TrEMBL record:
One of its GO terms (molecular function) is ferrous iron transmembrane transporter activity. It is found in: Cell inner membrane; Cell membrane. The keyword ATP-binding does not apply. Its main location: membrane. InterPro entries: Fe2_transport_prot-B (IPR003373), Fe2_transport_prot_B_C (IPR011640), FeoB_Cyto (IPR041069), FeoB_GTPase (IPR050860), G_FEOB_dom (IPR030389), Gate_dom (IPR011642), GTP-bd (IPR006073), P-loop_NTPase (IPR027417). One of its GO terms (cellular component) is plasma membrane. GTP binds at residues 9-16, 34-38, 55-58, 115-118. The lineage of its organism: Bacteria, Pseudomonadati, Pseudomonadota, Gammaproteobacteria, Oceanospirillales. It comes from Neptunomonas qingdaonensis. It is a multi-pass membrane protein. Signal peptide: none annotated. The chain crosses the membrane at residues 282-305, 338-362, 382-404, 416-443, 449-472, 506-524, 599-621, 628-650. This is Ferrous iron transport protein B.
Amino acid sequence: MHFTVALVGNPNCGKTSLFNLLTGARQRTGNMAGVTVDVKQGAREHKGLTLTFVDLPGIYSLSQNRVEERVARDYLLNTPPDFVLNVLDASHLSRHLALTTQLLEQGLPTMLALNMMDEAARLRCVPDIKQLSKQLGVPVLPSDGRKSAAIEPLLDQLVASLLANHQHQASLITTCSALMINYEPHVEQAIQQLTQKNISRWQAVQSLEAAGDVGFPISEEVRQTLSDQLTLLAQRHDETATELITAGRYGYIHGLFHEIDEAHIDISRLDTWLDAITLNRWLGLPLFFFALWLIFEATFTLGAYPADWIDQTVGLIGEGVTHWLPDTLFRNVITDGLLAGVGGVLVFLPNVVLLFLFIAILEQSGYMARAAFLTDRVMSKVGLHGKAFVPLVMGFGCNVPAIMATRTIEEPRARLITILINPFMSCSARLPVYVLLAGIFFADNAGSALFGIHMLGIMVAFVIAALLSRWLPAQPNEIFIMELPPWRWPSFRSLMMHVWDKVQDFLHKVGGVILVGSMAVWVLQTFPMQGEMSFLEQLGRWMAPLFAPLGFQWQETVALLSGFLAKEVIAATLAMVYQVNAEDMGGLQLAMQAGLAPAAGLALMVFTLLYMPCLATLAVIRRETGSWRWAALSIFSGLVLAWLGGWMAFNLGGLFF
């Protein structure tokens, strides 16, 4: 038998972590709102049943008009699941139960999974699970998206509930009847008037709460009655219908806690002093930038040791190939193509892993959400919406999913600006190039160089956002209330899953586009074998005058051209065109030091940061904006900014290096 279970909950409740544990998936998680932007699915077998779990976006209500709310609401209405697993944060239960009441009013078969029970225990506000289940009339179980041991009881109860509903055993509490909340008398009168028009009670409540903007069809007769009732409520009360219904729900929740003798206090926290420091008006931003500097310093310093081991391994393989294979074109392919190109990128895997690990720690601990709060004022001044922070941070990993994450931004102008500036957020694909150049030309301050180049990308993105906000026609601002999640210890399991997922992505690119790019560069570099210059060198020297003002030679020119496929290919191409032989991977650094001035190395870092996005990013810009015009603008503006930025870096850098 097959059943579908939808996971529904507020942002930051641990819903996606639980989904990953239930399905073995590796969806992105983070301790801040806006991480899940669409519907994710995964399946597993349990006790002979096939369970398909659907991870819906984190939402606060089914009656609001934001993208996340509409996605979740439309899914529940148009493709109703067999069961709803409502995930709640036990340490903030009173707030999270507001969504629960909406699910129960709709009459959806529901089970509650209480996450963060350890935090609730620390705050001395552990709910009485048995009493809560009795009062709500649905199963309630503790859960933990970080520990697999908590999953079996949850699955057992879920299967029992599914089978009970399937067999229509009305005597069990899992056969869910709609929750009835007694609202303010005038609201109840309005509900009664609407239900007389052949719509259900929950449809009447949602119509009043959303002022008719609902996901189900309603007749003109119902719309007219709804308009009349909303007018009557406005005449009788200072509050809107939405506010009256919300007050009724929280009144029900308050009474619920009184029934279960639960003094559920969320505001007394042991970690308030952390917020006092990290959110301080004067200390907050400097502290955040210092944390970022530490991350880049550690990324370079700690990553150097395993990178050396990989370098030595590649060198030993190259020595073995040279020793055992005859001097033929095939050996040349392996040593000068495969090992020099792919091996030249693979050595930077530890740096990429460390950067992702540190960023994941910032996200899961809750610090990144504090950073969003600190930067919100600056972002609003340059025309960026508060919801833009999550896509911009995701851009440090990969610009493709980051641009897709802008779907949570309702206002078209703000979304377009966020899409267009996202490529300036330096993705991890550029990191191998930065680490290579910083290690060669700025070895004593490599961590600071990495920090500086990423900060430059942020500054350029904000300047471009300010210009675009003046150029594009203004539209009404979408209201955005930022949620500060609690401080949490990052889950070791979640961190390792996140890192392993990124390692797989990196290795997939190494075995895919980087391998293909390296082989293409090798062919162009090797042929024609009889001529004085290869095809690659001819192309590079033909374009070299355009890049000469930046201090580049033909080698850097062809490397930048290859980066259009993927930015990692730049490092692979440099390794191939500068590499003396595969046995001496350090020869690349010596050759580049001899051929480039430090100022030119700085210019190359700046150019790599700013020039046109990779092919995959351009494709997603075209798809998300619906026009090649914006993708073309991204190419043109990136090339112009990169050339100007590289020229300034070369000339200003020449004064100091």
